[in-house]
Amino acid sequence: MGAIADTLTEAGHNVTILMPVMDIEQQDKTGVKLTQHIIKVPCDPRVAEMSKDKRDILSKMWISQPSILVMLETAQIMTKSFTYQCERVFKDEQLMKRLREENFDVGIAEAMSVCGFGED
């Protein structure tokens, strides 16, 4: 997404990135070089709490025997994280008002999270 944003910025478009922070350790990594207008949404406290166990979960993922139960558990954790962070975005009334007032022409969201298209 960062490459797309920078390409559009370089072509003269006014680009805004909405960046819900899912991982506090990664919050300063935007993936862009040229695009300057970035709106960061702080990490939901529930996601931050879940992230405390991230290293343990990830290390087990690489050493445990392949198991559908482990895969389902990991998917459930990821689903909860995205749901909580999405709620955090949409419950921020000031942010929603600000985004509506921008009158964007186009919206592009990550394929793995449709949260970016949840507001009319």
TrEMBL record:
It catalyses: glucuronate acceptor + UDP-alpha-D-glucuronate = acceptor beta-D-glucuronoside + UDP + H(+). GO terms for molecular function: glucuronosyltransferase activity. Keywords: Glycosyltransferase, Signal, Transferase. It holds the Pfam family UDPGT. It is an enzyme of class 2 (transferase). Coiled coil: none annotated. Its EC number is 2.4.1.17. The keyword NAD does not apply. The keyword Ribonucleoprotein does not apply. Belongs to the UDP-glycosyltransferase family. This is glucuronosyltransferase. It comes from Strongylus vulgaris. The lineage of its organism: Eukaryota, Metazoa, Ecdysozoa, Nematoda, Chromadorea.
